[in-house]
Q: What sequence folds into this?
């Protein structure tokens, strides 16, 4: 099943709920701006019609929008693209080369959905 044939779940939560999710699933006692959970682990022959879940913290996104001088909608676009790219197999935490590839793809997609904004990577 191709990526374009799949669906994803998108949730918007507050910092308190994001803290719980991050603690429970990643062992990190802190909130974060976006988390992604892929439905498939890549080793299975079963391909779910659900690509995975993207969870965005509204509280953190709002703070970051102000810090970065972008609108909240633009920050949501950055975080959504970042989360979806993780579901598609990109992972900036694997090294510099992977981070560059993810940054390039992020900017490419952001230009499609926010053509009037000069948004940078994540």
A:
């Amino acid at each position: 099943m191709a990526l374009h044939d799949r669906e994803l779940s998108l949730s918007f939560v507050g910092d308190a709920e994001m803290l719980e999710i991050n603690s429970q699933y990643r062992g990190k006692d802190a909130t974060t701006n976006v988390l992604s959970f892929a439905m498939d682990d890549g080793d299975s022959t079963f391909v779910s019609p659900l690509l995975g879940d993207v969870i965005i913290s509204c509280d953190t996104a709002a703070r970051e929008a102000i810090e970065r001088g972008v609108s909240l909608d633009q920050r949501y676009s950055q975080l959504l693209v970042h989360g979806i790219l993780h579901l598609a197999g990109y992972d900036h935490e694997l090294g510099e080369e992977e981070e560059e590839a993810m940054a390039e793809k992020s900017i490419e997609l952001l230009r499609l959905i926010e053509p009037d904004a000069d948004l940078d990577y994540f």
In short: The mean pLDDT is 86. The CA atoms of residues 37 and 105 lie 19 Å apart.
